UniProtKB/TrEMBL annotation:
InterPro entries per record: CENP-V/GFA, Mss4-like_sf
Protein family membership: Belongs to the Gfa family.
Domain CENP-V/GFA: 2-113
Keyword Zinc: yes
Provenance organism: Gilvimarinus japonicus
Protein name, entry field: GFA family protein
PROSITE patterns, per database record: CENP_V_GFA (PS51891)
UniProt key word Hydrolase: no
Gene3D superfamilies in alphabetical order: glutathione-dependent formaldehyde- activating enzyme (gfa)
UniProt KW keywords: Lyase, Metal-binding, Zinc
Length: 122
């Protein structure tokens, strides 16, 4: 249904169903991982997520508790995170890296208490 690839194209995967939830996360881990003010992820059942190529290029990082983040070891592009205690059979994928169009009806803001401060011009 949706195709995705990392920046260098080594890792490709597809989503076999429509994501069930999309959120922009403002937590410090997502900010640091993406080098941005927030990260937008869509979540779906793990069974509806399939790697097509490049699994040998994946690097995993246990960022907290059971949460494991995966990224391409060649270009560093974020691929997925999984391991939520409340949704152990789900995976969340970075929306910005989808190669096929993805139209969102809503995006939930999470960890807004950690929002990055605005830039100050001097």
């Amino acid at each position: 249904m949706y195709k995705r690839s990392c920046l260098c194209g080594a890792v490709t995967f597809e989503l076999l169903s429509e994501p069930k939830a999309t959120s922009s996360c403002h937590c410090k881990m997502c900010q640091k991982q993406h080098g941005a003010a927030f990260a937008t992820y869509s979540s779906l059942p793990q069974s509806d997520f399939r790697y097509l190529s490049g699994q040998e290029q994946l690097v995993s990082y246990n960022s907290s508790g059971n949460i494991v983040r995966k990224f391409c070891g060649v270009c560093g592009a974020n691929i997925e995170w999984a391991g939520s205690a409340s949704h152990p059979d789900w995976v969340s994928v970075a929306v910005a890296a989808l190669d096929t169009p993805f139209y969102l009806s809503s995006i939930k803001e999470v960890h807004a208490d950690s929002k990055a401060c605005g830039l100050v011009q001097g």
